[in-house]
Amino acid sequence: MKQLLYSLIFCLGIATPAFSQQKDTTASFSLQDAINYAQNHQISIKNAKIDEQIAINTVKKTIGIGLPQVSANASFQDYLKVPTSLIPGEFFGQPGTEIPVTFGVKYNSGIGLELNQLLFDGSYLVGLQASKTYKELSVKNTARTRIETAVAVTKAYYSVLVNNEQLTLIDANIERLKKSLNDTEQLFKNGFAEKIDVDRLTVLNNNLLTERENVIRLLALNVNLLKFQMGMSIGSSLQLTDRISDINTNTTPVLGDGLTYNKRIEYSLLQTQKKLNELDVKRYKSLFLPSLAAFGSTSANFQADKFGDLYDKRFPTTVIGLRLSIPIYSGGQKLYDLRNAKLESLKTDNNLINLQNSIDLEVSQARTTYLNGQKSLENQKRNMDLAKEVLRVTKVKYDQGVGSSLEVTTAETSLKEAQNNYINALYDMLINKVNLDKALGNINY
After folding, report:
1. Using 50, 70 and 90 to split pLDDT, how confident is the model at 251?
2. Is 143 exposed, middle or buried (CB count within 10 Å of its CB: 0-12, 13-18, 19+)?
3. 125: part of which helix (H) or strand (E)?
4. Are strands 107-120 and 237-240 parallel, antiparallel or unpaired?
5. Residue ranges of the domains in the chain?
6. What is the mean pLDDT of residues 97-102?
7. Can you say how many angstroms the Cα of residue 19 is from the centroid of all Cα atoms in its chain?
8. Secondary structure of 383-412 as H, E, C letters
9. Which residues of 89-108 are buried (b: 16+ CB within 10 A; e: fewer)?
10. How far is CA 119 from CA 14, 104, 122, 226, 323, in A?
11. pLDDT confidence tier of residue 146, bands split at 50, 70 and 90
12. How far apart are CA 179 and CA 278, in angstroms?
């Protein structure tokens, strides 16, 4: 629990500035309510949704490459000095000389419209497929973020429940010990008990009070961590409606049925990445194919020596045509790009195999840890019940004068230790349950 405390302090120390602009609220949530709230308010999920929109815009952008591209232009020129060229004198009957002649007029203007339409480009067709797969990848990334958020919220929620349970046990111990301490003090005043008996119980009582304060602080920290995982401001007031007793910890885990891979979002993401790699290979192959585009343009030019006469006469020009581009040699760049794309696809195949083994190992570990935790929780609960009974019998013997105060103190200490072991086993059990559900792919959003 101490390691948990340190990690909570670290997480909240990083997270606190992010909530400076969030509005404080008051709410009561069950575990499912908390998860649903997080699905709509957790920043990581909001960003994942934004990434989805970016992917949608990327698809539309790619589609736009194949749509008609239309552009307009306009120009105006004022030749402060009209260009002059030298013409051989033979043209003017003056052989052996060069005659300077001015070509053009002072003012020129033009307007035009140009249209380009892609007719065939293999890389564009593959790009359309890749953009849609990229969109699919972003959707799956959002699903992964939702699952991770649900897991984090569940663990944080369980931590709060365990702290509440621990606090309940401590309060019961304090109440019982307070009565024993009062009774022992009365016996001491009447000469039927020694001062050391009172001192032992006082030490236990002080330790319990200190432990209670520590648990209260840890509980507040766990509640703040839960708010952070939910996307709720730290200043909000949060009450939990679920109880430890509502959680079924005696269920037997469902064994893998061979479909675990397909239920895991990580595997699905890697499969989508494989599709992207395969499309990348197709794209580089398509770069060896020719591309064909149609174009057309129309323009009007205006010329005059006087500015006022510039737009009196129009000289139109219109052209249409096709443009065929055939790749011949590019220094081998395309070839090596294609080879690298094939190697990347091969790496993804290897990663899929490795992920399958990793999932198998994770499921095996999670199942073993869960079953061990289940047995440990049952054992610690029995130990706690036995420690309660030992304390009860010891107190009866002490009250009847056939037992010592040391036995009572030892029994109190044993019960406190058994309760701490139970709390730790309960926390481990709940966390192991979440880890097993995640490993089996049973958490989906």
Report:
1. low
2. middle
3. helix 122-189
4. unpaired
5. 2-11+24-73+120-295+328-439
6. 80
7. 18
8. HHHHHHHHHHHHHHHHHCCCCCHHHHHHHH
9. eeeeeeeeeeeeeeeebbbb
10. 54, 39, 10, 56, 10
11. very high
12. 75
- Give 302's strand partners: 109
Is pTM beyond 0.90? Reply is no
Place of tokens 């990690």: 7
At residue 140 the predicted structure's pLDDT band, cuts being 50, 70 and 90, is very high
- The residue with tokens 């040699």 is 329
Residue 388 corresponds to which tokens in the numbers above?
A: 């309660």
CB 98 within 8 A of CB 137: no
Q: Residue 8: pLDDT above 60?
A: no
Q: What is the pLDDT at residue 13? A: 46
In the Cβ-directed half-sphere of 105, how many Cα atoms lie within 13 Å? 13
pLDDT in tens, 192-218: 788 898 898 899 999 999 999 999 999
Task: Report the pLDDT averaged over residues 160-173.
Answer: 93
Structure tokens at 224: 């703040």
Assess if CATH 1.20.1600.10 describes domain 2-11+24-73+120-295+328-439.
yes
DSSP assignment of 360-378: HHHHHHHHHHHHHHHHHHH
